[in-house]
Design a protein that fits this description.
Blueprint lengths: L4 H16 L10 H11 L27 E2 L12 E8 L6 H14 L13 E5 L2 H18 L9 E4 L17 E2 L9 H10 L2 E5 H9 L6 E4 L22 E6 L17 H5 L17 E3 L2 E2 L4 H8 L10 E2 L23 H8 L5 E5 L10 E3 L2 E3 L1 H17 L10 E4 L3 H11 L3 E2 L1 H4 L4 E7 L15 H8 L2 E9 L10 H6 L16 E5 L2 H7 L4
Parallel strand pairs: 2-8, 2-9, 3-6, 3-7, 4-5, 4-6, 7-8, 10-11, 12-18, 12-19, 15-16, 15-17, 17-18
Antiparallel strand pairs: 1-2, 13-14
């Protein structure tokens, strides 16, 4: 089903209106978002594809020759045949990268720039590292079409790709009617399936799902890689190696978050690092010029106090991240808090922990001695005290916020160690995982169990700045951190002790309340609040 001309015009006008709206208005796109969207959908430098040129090497090209980049990983193919009009969009957590991708992709296929209509239809594919990221991006397309435009007939040209039929179970229920499989389930439906493949203009799926398009002879004009910090350079070729129509390639992600594969040195840098020339091994020094590297600098996810703490663990010193209009409103805080009566023991402690204005709560278990130490669990670590503290805090959370559903939609439990995360999920029945698992996701409330509490050893795994940045930046409205700083005595933990356990909010912006609560959990508080531990 193709889109009718009147609907095409209405959608294009809607996006143009967003791009032309004054950025100082609330709900408006900021200037960097507009630049990024236009870089996706508007005309730029034409690609060099002169097939008469002899085999070339990258040394023959300078950064002044072209704004294009090369991915010289396929042997025996002329470099000029591997060059694309390319860009990088870098955005810290919550900066609206998904919105930029969706608006840019829609505008690109419905109003393609000159030179990008290589076939009857202009097409784009959005590739992600994980099914969770693909679901998040497709959800943004649905939000724009259904809520922004009140348009529900997009299923004919915007589809969710899956690599295998069994992947259907991983797809949110709302997206299943838009699924497009690589091959027809019933051979008798092959003709209809082929028509659906060809009529689709926007494809969203994992790298492996998107690669099946090439095997089906479906070529797209632009490829966008989301989660660019988790994609290795060789994986960049999955959706483009057999794609004869591709003109433009974009990477979107956060280079300060977790790299793809840390254990294998040659794959421990991401596609973004590779294209920016920041790798441990220089594959041709094929840099993207600075004007094609767009940095999003306003975040719309986290309360400012959570944002400030997370940015203290950024691997890029001096990176500036401003707060969007929405996170400064009182509406961004948790709502309908019911404080405990002043006559109850330690009511001030409980009220401070759950006060919506205390958006960062740090609970230090150092005073509890050996009870707060961790244990080895095969090759991982587990801390039973922190598990039980979180279990009790979840119960109290439901009492202080009667309207809040204690479920996976509202709460995430994070630990650097898989054994701890698995135990937390088993005990609480709340989705738990490592920072690696939750990269790219968010939740109104996050409990972070530091787990490690061993005076005589260290853990470079826990002290990894990227991992801490991811873990701290998942929370939107409240971040509760439980840890034992007295057992983090190694020099690797100095930054954790100074930045987390001694955290004070400094702004900007200036708030009329202190958003941080530091609690030293001593024996008296421990026995009163957690008697069953």
């Amino acid at each position: 089903m193709s889109i009718e001309e009147r609907d095409r015009t209405r959608i294009i006008n809607y996006i143009d209106g967003l791009l032309n709206q004054d950025s100082t208005e609330e709900e408006a796109l900021n200037e960097q978002q507009k630049i990024a969207i236009r870089r996706i959908c508007e005309a730029h430098a034409p690609p060099i594809r002169n097939t008469n040129q002899p085999q070339s090497t990258l040394e023959e090209f300078t950064r002044e020759d072209t704004s294009l980049i090369s991915l010289p990983l396929i042997p025996d193919i002329p470099v000029r045949h591997q060059m694309y009009d390319s860009y990088i969009i870098i955005g810290p957590p919550g900066t609206g990268k998904t919105t930029v991708i969706a608006l840019g992709a829609i505008k690109y296929v419905l109003d393609p720039p000159s030179g990008h209509r290589r076939s009857r239809r202009t097409k784009i594919v959005v590739c992600t590292f994980s099914n969770a990221a693909a679901a998040r991006i497709f959800e943004k397309f649905q939000e724009i079409f259904e809520e922004g435009l009140n348009y529900h007939q997009y299923g004919g040209f915007c589809r969710r790709l899956i690599a295998q039929t069994r992947d259907v179970q991983r797809i949110p229920e709302r997206q299943r009617s838009y699924i497009l499989r690589p091959y027809p389930e019933d051979p008798r439906m092959a003709q209809n399936h082929r028509r659906d493949l060809e009529n689709t203009l926007i494809y969203v799926g994992t790298l492996y799902a998107c690669e099946t398009l090439n095997r089906n002879g479906i070529n797209t004009n632009q490829v966008i890689f989301d989660e660019g910090s988790q994609i290795t350079p060789p994986q960049l070729y999955y959706p483009i190696s057999r794609n004869s129509n591709v003109i433009r390639v974009g990477l979107v992600g956060d280079n300060c978050q977790l790299p793809p594969i840390q254990e294998i040195s040659l794959l421990s840098f991401s596609g973004i690092d590779y294209l920016r020339g920041q790798t441990i091994r220089d594959f041709g020094n094929s840099l993207i010029r600075e004007e094609n590297q767009i940095v999003l600098n306003y975040q719309y996810r986290m309360h400012p106090a959570i944002r400030e703490l997370a940015m203290r663990f950024s691997v890029e010193e001096g990176r500036i991240l401003n707060d969007g209009f929405n996170v400064l409103r009182d509406e961004h805080l948790l709502q309908n808090f019911v404080p405990i009566g002043s006559g109850e023991p330690y009511s001030d402690v409980i009220n401070n922990i759950f006060n919506p204005q205390k958006t960062v709560v740090i609970i230090d278990t150092s005073e509890l001695g050996h009870v707060a130490e961790d244990e080895f669990e095969e090759l991982s670590r587990i801390n039973l005290l922190e598990i039980r503290i979180i279990q009790n805090l979840l119960t109290m959370l439901g009492e202080r916020y009667p309207d809040l559903q204690i479920n996976n939609e509202n709460i995430k439990l994070i630990s650097p160690y898989r054994a701890q995360a698995d135990s937390l999920q088993e005990v609480t029945n709340i989705l738990s995982g490592t920072a690696d698992k939750f990269q790219g996701q968010e939740s109104p409330i996050v409990f972070l169990s530091m787990t490690f509490a061993d005076y005589d050893s260290a853990s470079s795994f826990l002290a990894d700045l990227r991992r801490l940045n991811v873990a701290l930046s998942r929370a939107q409205r409240k971040l509760v951190i439980i840890g034992n700083q007295s057992r983090m005595n190694h020099r690797l933990f100095r930054r954790i002790r100074s930045e987390i356990f001694n955290y004070t909010y400094q702004g900007p912006p200036t708030l009329d309340y202190d958003p941080v609560y530091n609690l030293e959990l001593d024996v008296n508080i421990y026995n009163q609040l957690f008697p069953q531990i």
